[in-house]
Here is the input.
Amino acid sequence: MSASLSDLSQTAADTVSADEIVFPPSDLPSDEPPLESSLHLQQLLLLISCLNWVWRDRQDYFCAGNLTVYYSPRQLKSELFRGPDFFVVRDTSNQPRRSWVVWEENGKYPNLIIELLSDSTANGDRGLKKQIYQDIFRTPDYFWFDPQSLEFQGFHLLDGLYHPLEANESGWRWSQQLGLYLGVHEERLRFFTP
Here is the structure.
């Protein structure tokens, strides 16, 4: 005699109470390519929505998250590109874009970049990307923030080199490019008006 699947399910339900079910941990390791956490997504959405709200009367900027910036001097999209977590370009149109292509945007690079650190990106964000943003992009304001540890640092480009920004008494750092402070409040990086 064979038992149906529903009979087996009912038998299992009759013999095991809900208190006895052991679920595996939810933070299991994976050999899939690392993905950012839900904190990264929430942080990114917060930055975009808040800047768009603060600058709601302006149409002369573009801000985006996880959008590729193509910057090849040979104007090839197959080489020399980066995907900053968040960036702002001033003095441009606010139209939607699929990517930021420097040679199609009158040679404009981002005025501000924020990288959200993670275990898999922190070394690159503090090293190679910082160097590229300083030497090639010449992005005036560069910040990084770790949504897990709350590490927050900012830099301003002066005479071709990034110099660390001093935090004020609230722990906020000034962005000359935005005319706003950036700081951590309730475990999120936020914008603050002067």
Q: What stands out?
A: The longest helix spans residues 38-54.
